[in-house]
Design brief:
By secondary structure, the protein is α+β, with helices and mostly antiparallel strands. It has helices spanning about 10-20, 25-35, 80-95, 110-115, and strands at about 1-5, 40-45, 50-60, 60-70, 100-105, 120-130, 135-140. It has a single domain (about 1-145), classed as Gcn5-related N-acetyltransferase (GNAT) (Aminopeptidase). The structure holds coenzyme A.
């Protein structure tokens, strides 16, 4: 089930970051994000087990997805889809113009997830990532047609 992410999720979320990303967010950074008024942090859990989580922030009517991650042994079961649907609903409720994010072009799972939910590739940030160095694709979901480029 989906629940608001709390301090109680931080240990498992930080461990999941380590498994998923070479530039993993620390427990401290995750905790700081939880405390932000303009952030939305959502967890998928089963009992005490954190299956995955997602985090987004907004400034004015612009939304930015910080991260979305699912435990390796729980993937391809629709967990990220449920988290993404919650993020999109949050943005709609806040009347955001768009939600945007960066993704490695080599990350086919994440790219597939974003395409499934209607994110479009709108740009490239050269050499954005390190370990290994890679460009980032900038992908955006537009809530309103008039905001599309
Ligand atoms: C990307 C990630 C969050 C997907 O989580 P998930 O729970 O397995 O995703 P879902 O089961 O909800 O799948 C949703 C869609 O994503 C795409 N997808 C997921 N895994 C995929 C894979 N291995 N290959 C290709 N497409 C994939 C598919 O389009 C899928 O839709 P479908 O099941 O209808 O075909 C997960 O692989 C992950 O945590 N990866 C490591 C962290 C990461 O890279 N996060 C994104 C950073 S930008």
């Amino acid at each position: 089930m989906l629940v608001p992410m709390t301090d109680g999720h931080l240990d498992q979320a930080a461990a999941l970051e380590q498994v998923c990303f070479t530039d993993a967010w620390s427990r401290e950074l995750l905790a700081q994000t939880l405390a932000l008024e303009n952030a939305y942090n959502i967890a998928a859990q089963e009992g005490d087990l954190l299956l995955g989580y997602a985090s987004a922030q907004y400034v004015l009517d612009e939304g930015y997805i910080n991260n979305i991650a699912v435990r390796p042994d729980c993937r391809r079961q629709g967990v990220a889809s449920r988290l993404m649907e919650a993020l999109l609903a949050w943005g709609a409720e806040r009347e955001l113009a768009f939600l945007t994010l960066e993704v490695r072009p080599s990350n086919m799972a994440a790219y597939g997830l974003y395409r499934k939910y209607g994110f479009e590739t709108v740009g490239v940030r050269p050499n954005y990532y390190t370990h290994p160095r890679e460009n980032a694709l900038l992908m955006t979901y537009y809530y309103r047609k008039e905001n599309t480029p």
